[in-house]
TrEMBL record:
It comes from Neolamprologus brichardi. SMART domains: LRR_SD22 (SM00365), LRR_TYP (SM00369). This is Leucine rich repeat containing 9. Residues 1083-1101 have a biased composition (Polar residues). It comes from the Eukaryota.
Amino acid sequence: MLSNEKQKNRSEEEVIKKLCMANGVPYEKIAQEGSSITSLEMFFSGFPCMVGLSFFPRLSQLTIIGQNIEYIDGLECCPLLQELWIVQCHLTEISGLQNCLQLEKLYLYENKISEIKNLDLQVHLEVLWINNNCITKIKVRAVSPCLDLNVNLQKLNLSGNKISSFKELSQLARLPRLSELALKDPTSTPNPVCLLCNYDTHILYHVPSLQRLDIYDVSSKQIKEAAESAVMKKRMYYNMRVRTAQRKLAETRLSLIERKKTLSQSPEECIKTLTRALKFVCTLHKMFFCSSSKKLQDPATEHKVHAKIEALRKRLKLWTRRLDEMEYTVQFLLMELESVGNIRLEEGCSTDPWFTSCCDLLLSRFSPSDYKTYGITDIRVDRVIRIHNSALRLCFEDKIHRLLANEDLSSQNYRRQLEYLFYIVDPEKCEKDETLQILQEGFKTTEQQKAMGKEGAIPFSNSLSLNEQSRIEYTLRQTSQGHTKHSMDTIPFRHGQVNVSKVFVGKSMPIRDGEPVDRSNYPGVYSVYRSVETNPRRRQWFVFDHELVLPEYIIYYEYITQVNYCIHSFDYPTNDVALDKEVLNREPVLKPQPKLLSLDDKILLSVARANVLSQITVLNLHGNSLSNIKEISSLTALRHLTVSFNEFTHLDDISHMPNLEFLDASFNHLVTLEGLRGLGQLKQLDVRWNKLTKVREDTAVLRKHTPALLKLDTRNNPWNRPEAVRMTILGHLMNLTHLDDVLVAEEEAAEAVQMTAGSKINQLQHVGFSVKTFLGAVLGGMMLNFVTFCVYQIADQITTLNLDNQRISKMINLSKLVNLRWASFNDNEISKVEGLDNCLKLEELSLNNNSICTLSGLTRLHCLNKLSVDGNWLTSLDVSTLDGLSSLSFLSAENNCIASLHGIQRLRSLFELYIGSNQISTSRDIYCLKGLTNLLILDLCGNPLVEKLENYRIYVVFHLPFLKALDGIEASECESAKNMFMGRLTTDTVAEKLGHSNYTKITHLNLQSCSIRIVDLSPPELFRNVRCINLDHSNLTSFSGLIHLPNIKALCLNYNHIESILPRQKTQTHLTSRQILYSKVHSSGYSQQSTSKATRDTGPTGSLEPLMGSLEVLHLSHNGISNMANLQLSRLTNLKALFLEGNEISQVEGLEGLHQLRELVLNRNRIKTLTKNSFAAQALLLQLHLAQNRIRELNHLDPLIELHKLSLDMNKLQDIAELDKLEALPSLKELSVVGNPVSINKFYKQSVH
């Protein structure tokens, strides 16, 4: 021993001598000169261990390169060290720096370090180079912080490592001064995450302080803004999809409660129907075949009853499973969001080649003989999901390429060693959690497997039965222990799922008997296998390297037995409604039973088949219409009570029943369990499918009044916080053995009790310090009606606050949280927003599911970016509050009572608006959104407007063309919207133009130059006081939309394209696509035409129905009119002034019905002659203007006996004799013929006189 120590000392002495020689320090004088040395260097060899550093207490810089050092040692005596280089050595971990508190620069690249840790004391660290190591994760905030306290870190190089997840990069946002980051510098291999889509964008968004990323300068403001914009759009997109999925789930549940869906659309309706039938059949079975009287027993009928019960249970299980699968959708979308689209799950169908391939693969590896003992004859694929994980695929391919480069493997041999193998999740673990973990991060490493007590490899198999063995055994064991969830089926493991992975088995060998499966026992191989004796090709594989496994598919399947083969023989997907009906109609067929509305002693005795009330121990009141049962209070011996499928809202009548052991109150309308009292012997309670929401209150009732409760089923209730229901119940009802048909494990119960014993208020987290503190003391089961809290020393450091579901009724004592940025108060009892006046940095606030009636209290939150107030009692949007929310880009106010969007136009920065399930009913509210040009996502689902407004989507998209998505669907109807609504004059347009909607006060409507093509002012009674309308300079071709206005006197339609009062009738084949679109719109013109022959007749001799009886003045100048007869002007029987100046008219006609006409203007047309019928009906005409035409003769003017003024300027009158014809106009007082050839004759005036 002594010699070994001497040898070690001599060896260390030699190392120290080499160190001195390399740095020019005499070894003999090291004791004297060492204290003055501040810098040491050692390159390439001669320094196998860190010794002798105690001689250099003032050392500030140490450089060690190319040595064989495995761990850091000897720096305890170097407290002044500021810069440390240990490069190209063999370090496996970061350690030994606990005394180097002044360290500013640390270079540890090209080592074998797998984790960043033990740097929490280096608070002055500015530079960290740890590239070319084996790091896979960045645990910035963990139980033992690694970089969390390195707030001064400015330069970080992580290139050449194995970081593959965006989640890890997001952790770097906690380093406030980080300015340079390298993950793929040119001298190193890039991290796998660098090869994923949106890598740069993700980094720049989460670490905005960066000035340089890899080799690029990213200090430009434009680059940061572009990254922020890209991430924001992706967040909006996924947020919209998640909300859409959640809304669809909520709508489905709501529609089931209200029975708005048919059986083919509603899983819950099917469940209710099947459960009702099942309960009834079971009751018949107990009544007739479990009776002691043999006379009642018929083997054939009993067999039918058993068969029907079994069939009903199978159908019920199928629908329950379908309903559970809906919950996966949101999880998948959130996973896709977190991975920035690099993880995606694709649902397959029978037309996809890969779907068929998966089905064939499963069938080829299924052997009915393996399941013969269970009566299984076949297997059916229900569903296949394809996994797209870019990070795992890149990792897998990179690993394969490296193997191909390092080993003598040809491409052909490599493919032969690829297998598609099955993996089934651990049945004793949560199936959903493990599946999601595999989808996100892949399979666990061998070290993680061993840490969990498993073998040091990942288990796979090429045989379904081998993989299923553990699940089958576990399920059967659970069933034997009374796990009713599985015992309903003769094959409790009937439904399963398997993960299909691409596996590179590589060089492999059989497992040696007696040796554990561990890589150390099988050097040089990638996998080992165990073959089945009866069939050597069927193997169970164990793969050592998780990077050689790529999960690609999840197959959901169902085992088929001879009993259920006829039910499931349909092609995928099955006709579920038909199957349900087939089962329900099986013998014995259920006959409708009269429903009980009330009870009395006689009915009770009849139902229970008893003679005396005191003898009744079992009472079944299933499937009636009872809402109260006060009469059962006299049933003191009652032990078993069923009241399912009734109308109960509370259970007050079921109290003080000392012998009651079983109570089934499922499928009712219970909103609370508050009424239960004195049920000391109750052991089993079923309250499924009710309307329970408050788990704490209901659990407190059960804890107090049902102390013997062992089995409780609360599924399918609309709990406020469904994710916390199970732990809350188990934490208070500690005697439960089964909850929601699942056996309660001891570990789960202990965890729930421990959680309940903690604080009632969630812990706070804040950036910069790993502080976990509780706000409030343990309340020991006291009812919290009023919560106050103080945070004292850490108040100004808190940035995140989560107080969801804490029964808070007031928001007070928040004034010290001056740096608060994110706060959540969901699922409380808050009625007023208050106490946030000092939280001026607040960016996100969530107040969902409270009792808030107004948004007042948010006025000072100018930095608020995101606000969610779903599920409150808001009736309107407070304008004064919205004025202060200038930065708000996200607003969600779903499930309130908001009737108007007035005031929303103040939120100019709004990008997302979710305001579904409110009371918005008028199209005018859409106009409130027209000024929000930044709005990209709008959700109005569930508002009356959606159903009430014709062509709702097209209407909204037209008025809000900047929208990218409406109600969770891409707003792609822009072209259709333009065709249908562009230039359409509606009541909403009038309100927008005039700034109010008080239509009855409008007398003059001036809407010139508005490009109006269609008039749709309905209902016309709103405009009963309008006297004058000016629509000059528009695009009208008719004014049929105006004909119903009751009191209009003057109408100006100059500079349009009027062809007729009503458009001429066309057959459908002659209509243009645009006209067909108009014809579908109410009051568009085409749709308003009369269908009678008289109305369709547009000829001058047709018998036309008079229109617009109040109209007196009509302006139709400059409309391009060429045919006056087609105008149908004769229908305007009360018209007194008609202006047709500047058209293309060549003949005066179509005025037969205008007997009241006083003034007619036809200047600047192409009139050449006047016919006999031109003015036949205008005996009262006073003024006639025919200037600037082509008239040569003045014939047929004699009907104008009252004409006072005649203008014939700029025509082609040449002969004075034409003027003589005017003698037929006895009342003519004013004549003008300026610009005619006849006016050259100096005697023309004399001829007129």
